[in-house]
Every structure is written in C-alpha cells, then in structure tokens.
## 1
Amino acid sequence: METRSAKRRKLRNPNHSSENNTGEDRITDLPDAILHHILFLLPIKLVVQTSILSKRWRTLWHTLPDLDFTSIVPSGTRVKKIGSLNNLGNGSVITRILSLRDKLSDVRSLRFDACMSFSGLQALIRSAVRLGVQELDIRVETSDIFNFPRSLITHDCLRVLKVKACPSFRLPPSRIVRSGFQTLQTLSLSDVYLDKQSSLRDMFSDCSFPQLKKLHLKHCDDLIHLRVGCLVLEELVLKKCSSLQGLEIFSPRLVTLKVSSCFDGFSVTDTWVDINTPRLHTLVWVDNPITSNNCLQNLVCLHEATIGFVLTNLYVDAKKFQSGSPSFLSGLSHAVSLTLEHKFVQIISKNNSLVAILFNPFVKLNSLELQTSEVTDLASVLMVCPMIHTLIIKITYSHKREKRWGRLLLDLLNSRTEQYWDTKAKDLEPLLHHLKVVKIQGFSEDHIKLVEFLLQHGKVLQDLILGLEINNSSDCHRHEKLKSRIMGLSRSSLDTKLAFH
C-alpha cells in the first residue's frame, strides 16, 4: 500500500503522470489559515472528530482561533460525563480544552452556553484571557447571582463582549469600570442585577468606553436612570428595562437607536427622555409607555422612525399623550420615512386637532407606514401628510369577523365606508397629487372602497400593491373574483399599475 509520503514524492516529480494522482490528499497540504476557516464552518463536535484523520489533524483543532461551543448542548442542559464529545459544552471541559493550547496559539473568538459554578466560570475566563481572546460571548446558567468577572475589565485585547446570565449577574461599580474596557468596541449585557446601582449616569461615558461603537442592554429590570455619553457610539439598543424612568443620550456619532419595552408605565413620578444625537439615522421606539417629558434635539440626519406606545392607564396616558407626544414627535421633524404602529394610530385618529399638531413639523416626510385594524382611522393622519410619495398600510384583519357579522351587515358597512371616503376627497386632494406608491398588506374585500377611492382620485399614482391573505382554497377562489373586480375599476391615471401578492 502506497504511503502518503510516497505520493508526495511523486507529486514533486515533474515526470510523474497525472493519471497516478487519483489518491492525492490536497486538503491536508493546505495552509493552517485555510484549514482553520474550513473548520470554523463546522460544528465543534465534528471539528474534534477530525483529529483521528492523521498526525497533522490530531492537534490542528487545538490551534483553531475561533471556538464556538454553543452548538453542543441546548441552553440549560446539564451534563454529567465529563470528557465525552457530548459534553464539549460543559464549562470544565471547555476550560480543559483551553489549557491544552499553547500560549502562542491565541483565541480570536470564544462562544459558549453552559451550566457551571462561579469558580468554574472564573477559571474559564482566566484561561481565555491568558490566550488573548478578542471576542467573548458568554451564556451561562449558575445556581445564584454572580459578580462580573474582574479579569475581563483590564484585558487589553478584548474587542467584543456579550454576557447573558441566568438568573443574573452584578455589574462592577462605575469607578472600577473606568479603569478598564479601553479597547472594547461591542458590549451586550442581558439579565443584569444592578442592586444598589439603579442609576447608571456615569458608567457609559467616554472615559470608561473610549472605543465603544455598539451597546446593547436587555432585561435590566432594576435600571431607573441611564445616561449614555460615549463619543464614538454608533448603535444603542435598550430592551425590556421596565423600571426605567429617565434616559439621557448624548452620543454625537450615534446612527441607530432602538428602545422597546422600556420605562415604568405605572410610575407616580414623571418619566423623561433627553436625546441629542445629530447623526442619528434610524430610530425605533416601540412598546414603551408614554413618557411625561421629552426633549429630542438636533436629529437633523434622521431618516427612518418607527413609533408605537403601550397604554397602561387610559386616563393617565391621555394626559401624558396630550403633553408628551407632541414634544416627542416634534423632535422627529427631519424624518423622511415614518412608521406608526396600530395603537398609536388608533389614539391620534380620534383627535383631529392633535393630529395636526403632531404632524405639522414633518417637512421632509415622503414615506409613511401606518398599522391599523380600521382603515377609516387613517384619514385624519393622511390629511396632514400631503407631501408623501409612498404610503404603506398594514391591516390587522380577523377572518372571524365576516362570519360573526354576516354578509348583510358587511354590505351595509361597505356602503358607509364608500360614503366616508367620498366625503374626504377634498381634504385629501393635496395628498392625491403627490402619492405615487401605495402598498396595502392584509387586504380583503372589506377594503375595496379604499382601493376604489385611490384609483379614482390618485392623479399621479404609479403603483398599487395589494397583499391578499390566503388561508385555504376557498380564499383563493374568492380572491380571484376580487382581483377581477379591482382590475375593472376606473383609474384617474393611465400609468397606474396594479399588483397582487
């Protein structure tokens, strides 16, 4: 049997015929960097199994710069047999694997999801720091709340840090944080126990995080006040910080801001927002209670904004809405594209004077997305947005509605809807002279009067795209009839194109 070395000698011989190269092992002869890239694409369990291929492969995976143990065991799964392939996700096994690596074989990224003790976690992180880890993604389950590992704070190679803990972990004091994290660019913290640090007004500053570009905070239930002032920060995500009462953001390079399910809607004290971010491009503000005092300034580069509020107390929220929402939306006056979620549309549609106040500042708006269950709620909003070119309507529709109301009652409602839109033709005339693209998702025969109105009065309408809901074969048959009916409607513009999805 021909050995591999003999085959290599034949390859080096220029007179060797190509027909004898059928057993050539080209993969093993590839440089380590290429083999590392190939192994990175495989689950870690398969990577370990490659060690039986040959002498070179036996230790090759020990030098793999990117280690991902999250594919081994599902989150929260406890393991018993240490050392087997099925237990590579166990903390002690990961620590043992790291200890086998040479100091010259650095770890570029390490991801793991494991159940372990705090001492085991500390040992694992010390091993990762010793190997110069640059990206660390920790998802860990412990028996109790643990302290943030101090060895990470002063680690001068760390670029990306993501920590998610169950039940939670404690942040170190701000004075300790300021002594480290000088090279960190991405920070994601989830399930943080703040204890006596409910006010983080000086932690996320340029002194503590001079190179931080991305900051994600999730499930910080004890957080009451937050101030973010990192000068190079580009992305900030806050999610499920339900006790938040005050938020200050002063990051001149911030491009993306997403805040969802935050703020204390039952707080007896005022809640407030103060945002000054001149480079902000995208704002997502959804599932938050209405805050009492809002100051949004210098959002001159804002392009996309998505707004939606949660109602906790109708009486209190009505008062907050009258005072807080105009000041909030006025700060978004430079937005080019605006999306309003269902509940927000439902509130403002009941008060025409308030709608005019809310939308008066939007001088650049040319794209508007509205989410609603009743299309008649939209008219009051559309009247004060006369310059938009693109309108997207997402309708939440229940198929049980037709069965419950009956065909006769639906016909009566459609008749009233037709009369409703006819009465709005004059008020919506400025809009109909600018509107070019309309997309309606969740369209049904209940909304055909709206489509008829748009086709008859849309002077420059170019595209009308209707998204039909199909759940069964009977829907297909009914929708085919609906399509034929719509295609037969008269159009104000001969350039209007109809499309169905």
Note: Residues 289 and 310 are 5 Å apart (CA to CA).
## 2
Amino acid sequence: MENHKNVTDFVFMGLWENRQVELLFFLLFLLCYLAVLMGNSIILVTITCSHLIEQPMYYFLCHLSLMDLCYTSTVVPRLIRDLAATRKNISYNECMTQLFTAHLLAGVEIFILVSMALDRYVAIVKPLHYLIIMNRKRCHVLIAMAWAVGFWHSIALLLMVLSLPFCSPNHINHYLCDVKPLLKLVCKDIHVVSILVIANSGMVVVAIFLVLVASYILILYNLRTRSSAGRRKALSTCSSHVMVVVLFFVPCIYTYVLPAGSENRDKEISVFYTVIAPMLNPLIYTLRNSEMKNAMHKVWSQMSHSELK
C-alpha cells in the first residue's frame, strides 16, 4: 500500500489539450451550467408551489430536477474552473469525495427514472387503481429506496477504489474522478477489479435500461384500447420519459460496459450524462406538457403580482 500513500493528488488531462479550444468551451460549459441551474430551478419552484406536487408524476419529476442540479454541481463547476486553469489538479481526498458523490447522485437519479416509468405503467395499464397503488406513502418509499440503492452502489465502488494502490504518473485522462480512468493508474493487475466494476455499474445499468424499455413496450401495447385523445396524451408523456431515459442510459452503457483497459471515448461521451441530459431534461418535460406550462405561467404570474404589491 506504499504506492497508494505516495499519491496525494491527481492531475486531470481534461477534455482537450488545445488551450484555445479549452477557453472556447469554458464559455460554452459556463452557459450550459447556468441553463441547468435555471431550467431545473424553474421546474422545482413550479412544482413545489403548485397543485402539481400532489401528483406522483410531478413529485418524481421534482426529485429528478433536484438530482440533476446536485449531480451537475458535483462535476461541472470544477470542469469550468479547470478549463480556465493551467494546472488541473485535485487532491486524493477530493477525488474520492467526487467519485462517491457523483455515483451516489447518479444512482438515485437512475432509480427515480425507474419510479417514473412505474408511475406511467400503473397510470396507463391500471388506471382505476392508480391513486391506490401510487399513493403518497408509496412515492416516499420509492424515493427512500432510490437513495438506499444509490448509497449501496457508491459505497461499494468507493471501498473498492480505496483499497487499490496508485502509481505515478498521477495523470487522469478525464475531467472528473471516475472509476475507469482511475483504474488505469493502479499499479497491480486490474482484471478482477475491472470485472467487478462492470458488474457493479455496467451490467446494472444495462439491466435497468432493458426493464425500462420493456415497461414502455407494455405501455404502448396497452394503449391500443384507448381513445385517440387518450392515446395522444399518454404518448406525449411517455415520449418525454423515453427521451430522458435514452439521453442518460445510452452514454452510461457505453462508458461502463467496456473494460477499463480498452481505448474508447469515455470522457467525451460522459458529457452527455453530466451536462447535456440535465440541461435538456427541463425542456423535454415542459415544451410538450401543457399542464406544466399552465402551472408555470400561474406560479410565476402570482410571484410577479406579489412583488408588485
């Protein structure tokens, strides 16, 4: 474990090695982060300050927006800072904290997406029993389970990484502390550890994605018996969910299913679930949702009236 103790910090190699390109993307990612903060904050305020919070779908959407805010804030501010810095270093303890926090919040987000799929499935397949099955107590339990599963996943990953000996050079070929780029710095055979990472992250993500795809196929199958108006409304809601699921899961599968030693474009692909998906989620859920747009207009009108008084 001596080599492990010798590494006190890591240096990120970042997304690009061209300084001019990095300064250009500094501005771009700053604007993206501001869009994430604004979009998800608007959704949070709109839902919590309106009657929508009483509906399970919007209750889960509120938690999803909170996760997007928190998850992006664990990664993007440092990325923005590093794009403007000449040396992109992070201490060993900060690196482990980022690894744990990012995987905890991502794990919670994944199971919130599962809860949202379950909510839509019950609403469409068992509409008469919807309010009984998706009561507020069950919604709270699902969120608590999401946090429990997320914590189990991230603590298992953290304990595994903490037990590994790291060698110099301490350069991480990424813009964040993630398990796969860290494994490339380990000074022992990582074959078994790489399999464990694929099992803990890759296979779990694939299994959940397949379950979600199956649930939406069942939803589409059950929509055959609905009226054309009901079918359109259900398809509009479900298509928003499917877009969010694809945006988040497909890049995750690409990143975590392949072994750590393989040469791939992990750091570029990871931008989809660290920046792009959290930025687009508010647009996806509001642009095609009249209920959300009406609530947004009502809440922000009330706020502007109260300010004028």
Note: Strands lie at 9-12, 89-91, 171-172.
## 3
Amino acid sequence: MEIFARKLNFTFSVIKSVDGEWGRLLPNGSTTGMIGMCQRNVRSVEVDMALGPFSITYKRSQIIDYSVPLYIDSFGIFLPRPRKERDLAGFVKPFAWQVWVGLLTLMALSMVLGVAYNWMALKGSLPGAARTGAGGRRAFFRASWIFKMMLVEPIDLVPTSLTGRVLLGTWMVVSLILSSAYQSILTSLLAVPRVEVPVDSLQDLLDYGKIPWSVEHGTSIHQLLDDSSSGVYKEINKKIFYVSSSFAERDRVKEERFAILCDFFSMKLIMSDDYGQTGECNYYIAKEVIWSASMAFAFPKGSNLTGHFNKWMVMMKESGLVDRYLQEVTKNVTACMVPPGQEAGRNTSTVLSIFDLGGVFLIAAGGAAISIFMFLMEKLSRHRSL
C-alpha cells in the first residue's frame, strides 16, 4: 500500500472491520466483515477498498471486484508442534501388536505340543525320547525351555528323540531371529526417539479428539465449512470455534494447544516470527491441503480504483517484488519446515528417565507382587496340611 500510495499519489487511513470478520455471505443476502463494507460502499461510502488479501471465490465475485491475483496460497491445519510423549508401553513398540499376538499364540501351541510329547514319552509311546541327566533327572520336553530360548538362556538337558530335537531346534532359530530383531530395533528407538504426529488431516483431527480446532471468523474457509452439508467438513464445523486472527492467537495456540484452519502464508509468518524470537520450532503445518485459492485485494463493484491498482500490481509481480516481500517476512520458517524431532541443532542424545521405562518397572513390580502372593498361598497351604 505504501508503494501504491507513492506511485498513485494518494494518502490512506486504515479502518478495521466492525464485526471483526473477513467477509461471509449470509443466507438472508447480507454480507459481513470487510467484504460487506466494500459491498455497502455502493450505497454509502464506508471504504474504498479492502486490503486483505482475500481468497478469490465465486460468491464473493458476485458482489465485489477483485484486483489481479497477488499470489496463490493454500489452506490447511496449523497446530502446536508435536513433542515426544512418555510411553509406558514403549518397550513393546519394536514389534507390531500382530507380531506379539502371533508369538504368544505360537508359544502356547508349542507348550501344548511339548506337554503332549512329554505325556507320550512317560507312557512309553516314544522310546528313546529322553535322556537321563545328572541326579537321574529325565529330560523330556519342558515348557520352560521355550522361555529359555526366547531369553537366550542355556538349558542343561536336551531331548534325545528326533521329535523333541526338531521342536527345540525350531525354537532356537525363531528365538535367535526375534531376539536379534527386537534388541536392534529397541536400541534404535531409544537412541533416536521418533516423534509421532497425531494429526495430518481433517479426519485425523476428528479421530484424535485431543486437540480443539478453530477458524478465523468470516474467512472463505469459514464459508466453505458453513455451506457443507455432509462429510468431514460438516463434522469439523459442528465442533469449531472462531478466532479473529491467527497471528493474534499465535501464543494461545502453543500454550493452550489448539489448531487453527487458515492459509499457509499466515502459518509461515507465525512460525518465522516465533523462531526469530525464541530460536525454537513451536508450530507444525499438517500435510493435508484443504483447498487452494488466488489471493487479491477487494474493491466495491465498478470502482475506478481497480484498474489503477492492477497496473502497478502487475508491474510489481513481474519485477519479483511481491515474491521478495513474501520471502523476507517468512525467511526463518525453513528451519521449522522439517518433520518434528529433526530440527537443526536439536539434541538427539537420550537420557532415559523412570517415566521412559515405566512399563518395565511396572512389570517387575507386578511380578514381585504375584510372587509374594504365591508365597503366602503356599505357606497357608502348608500350614493347613500340618
């Protein structure tokens, strides 16, 4: 506007929208916000133009005139940056739940098979199925051997029959592969923690349910959600709340941890400004693009200012001034346009706390509690027998 004022030799004053909206078309035909102020200028002088910039939509074009597009932008989800969360079940993360279920099922079946083999050996159905060890112990197939194999522990006795050796040998191979894979993956997870991103789309926002969301009052995306009658847009619109400006709410976003549906330029402007002040990346832009639009100034229908502004706007775009200005005010954003956890200069060394390994300690405490209970039960049983 300062460049336009110099080139076209005019002065200007800024008037804020009375209702704080950008501009929506209501069902009764009236218009809110800055777009409404431009529309009403035909009947009574309120403003000569609206700076915006505004996304170009068909509905708006019916009541106001746009300048030539200033740039093209997209709209998406602006969020507080995901951080590494404490996970009590982190030690089971190296394998998917299907692997754990399959492993436990296989262990249970093998134990049943081992018990059946042991029973047949004792009945004499499998001659030569066992070897007598030290102290006269008979080494039939034992279920405890499977646990020892999984923990890479030695066993003192081995079965002599082919059936027992095949079963035990199979578990040796299985335990070698699984334990090696588990140890290596767990080591990598602990050394380089991975930050999970819970929200990357509108559907994720609905499913996650832990982050409230908002939209700038009277924007084109507000209009889009209001006009939706089905699908994810309608569900999003049911629980939405409104803010006047994403930039004005930037501190609340990271402190109160809620999302704003807004344009990408506003997101980058906030991230760049925040990084310049704090040196940290506190925000995240979701991957999903809700929609895209050309951005432009707005003028009352038939305004004679539109042509004058268009001339100089085209010249500014052709000279690269518009792109240069957009890049200058968002120059710090590149440091934060990386996946969470991969920011430059971030300390990746991990010191595990009691909370990181809480699940392991809970298992140990549970095992100790069960052993104490079993000890008391055995003592009570022995006392009764006496």
Note: The two ends are 99 Å apart (CA to CA).
